[in-house]
Amino acid sequence: MGITSAIVMFAVVWWMVFFIVLPLQMVSQGEAGEVVPGTHKSAPSDFQLGRKAKITTIWAVGIWIVFATIILSGAISVRDLDWFNRMPPAQAPLDPS
Fold first, then answer.
1. CA 68/CA 34 separation, integer angstroms
2. CA 1, CA 55: separation in Å to the nearest integer?
3. Among 2, 43, 53, 58, which residue has the fewest nearby CB atoms (within 10 Å)?
4. Which residues touch 14 (CB under 8 Å, ≥6 apart)?
5. Cα 88 from chain centroid?
6. pLDDT tens-digit profile of 72-89?
7. DSSP characters over 26-62
8. Cβ atoms of 83 and 76 closer than 8 Å
């Protein structure tokens, strides 16, 4: 895995975790009883974007380390995910004798 692949994989993992963390512990303006004029009752009363970004980064780094370790160790390869046998067979290594 190259550096570009690692960065792209981290970005994808980070955004996926962010979309999971975003609605957690959200208190709407309707639940808080303080609806700002011009907004919906379901709008968050205290968004806490920085806190959610920190939580996301901590979890994303851990998940990324697991994924990177699996990819770099070769425990799972692309051929393991070829369930419909569409990839050509792997070439055998050359015999030096």
1. 45
2. 26
3. 2
4. 56, 57, 60, 64
5. 30
6. 998 888 888 888 888 887
7. --BHHHHT-PPTTS-TTSBSS--HHHHHHHHHHHHHH
8. no
Give the type of residue at 52: K
| Nearest alpha-carbon partner for 56 in 7, 6, 16, 8 | 16
How far is residue 79's CA from residue 90's CA, in Å, rounded to a whole number? 9
Distance, in Å, from the CA atom of 66 to the CA atom of 21, rounded to the nearest integer, reads: 19
Residue 94: band (very low, low, confident or very high) from pLDDT cuts 50, 70, 90? low
Six token digits for residue 10: 């981290």
**Torsion from C-alpha of 5, 7, 11, 13, nearest 10 degrees:** 70
